[in-house]
Amino acid sequence: MSNRLSEEGLDLLFRQARTHSAWLDKPVSDDTLKQLYDLMKWGPTSANCCPARILFLRTPEAKRRLLPALAPGNVDKTMAAPVTAIIAYDLKFYEQLPKLFPHTDARAWFANTPELAGITARRNSSLQGAYFMIAARALGLDCGPMSGFDNVMVDHEFFPADGETNAFQLEHFPDSHVKANFLCNLGYGDPTKLHARSPRLEFDEVCKLL
Amino acid sequence: MSNRLSEEGLDLLFRQARTHSAWLDKPVSDDTLKQLYDLMKWGPTSANCCPARILFLRTPEAKRRLLPALAPGNVDKTMAAPVTAIIAYDLKFYEQLPKLFPHTDARAWFANTPELAGITARRNSSLQGAYFMIAARALGLDCGPMSGFDNVMVDHEFFPADGETNAFQLEHFPDSHVKANFLCNLGYGDPTKLHARSPRLEFDEVCKLL
After folding, report:
1. pTM value?
2. Is A194 part of a structural domain of the chain?
3. Could you tell me if residue B31 is inside a domain?
4. Chain B partners of A41 at a C-beta cutoff of 8 Å?
5. Please, are residues B84 and B174 in contact by the beta-carbon 8 Å criterion?
6. A144-184: per-residue pLDDT in tens?
7. B200 vs A43: CB contact, 8 Å cut-off?
8. What range defines the domain where residue B118 resides?
9. DSSP for A148-187?
10. Residue B207: inside a domain, yes or no?
11. Contacts of B14 in chain A (CB under 8 A)
12. Quick one: what percent of chain B has pLDDT higher than 90?
């Protein structure tokens, strides 16, 4: 195994990769979504806690449930995208720790400390959201991540609380311990619709060598 | 440009990559740290807000300032690592938006909404922390990310508030709007010291196709 990624790979994942809003008429297969998960799952999380949960909205019906919660500027590109992912997190991720981190009782670190569990779920599901986007690019997909939506509306529609829960949601997310983090459109972007790239901060504006 | 990463690349970044705690006696050059930043900076953030700030602790003196804040299990591997990065975030990231997102007044979205600014800084600096680790692996480095530390102590030592600020810190981080997110050791890991890999959740435990 080479111990450095090729220049072509660095371009694909970082230097030439762009956020897309316009999509080619090319579907994303369920098999590709499974390949995506089977890459992103390997990214490191704290105590291997793996708190991310993902809904892949593939049909117009599923995406219409999302529309009322979207910022106006995110509606058209979301309806046009082959797939929209809701990257969410499970506040009760710690129930999986006996399996995921079996060498010690890591569940006890979080089960009675909801503030720590919340910080850990949000930080690590964001890390996993980034692994998701890099893995998508590694598979030739393009991403359009979005924070412009109403979290309360998305959580109410897709991860409702007890008493507001239909049968499907009761089965999958029984008591609203799953919360949306951000959204990400997936597909094959139309490079002719890209604008000029925005600048980035210089090394010396961000980093200090101590 | 190929539109899919090579199998070798997928192994390097995801499938064979491991979190390391034992390090080969091989330094990490400042030039490599600059290459790392020049890759990770391209990863997408909300409104291109780029809130991550990074301290690279390279010397025993710099790392000794961190030691009192570390969980006991993180001390030896941190002192042994060639570099320890403090991945932090700037709560006033929005002051850079006129440069980073010039087409609209994005600064106004955050400047008077500290709660939204905080959520945005934490989410996006975590995304950037993941880009940091993937970029490090792409350059042949290994990572040892850590959440086991006292945030208050790290912030007090490295990003102190007004009135507790020495000249160096006043210059770089004038009023404690920079906060630590997580730590990451960097170096070339010793593969003979790795334990068996922990399991991951299956696709159907994490993802739903709607």
Report:
1. 0.94
2. no
3. yes
4. 200-201, 206
5. no
6. 999 999 999 999 999 987 655 555 555 555 458 999 999 99
7. no
8. 20-187
9. -B-HHHHHHHHSPPTTS--HHHHHHSTTS-EEEEEEEEEE
10. no
11. 39-40, 42-43, 131, 135, 138
12. 89
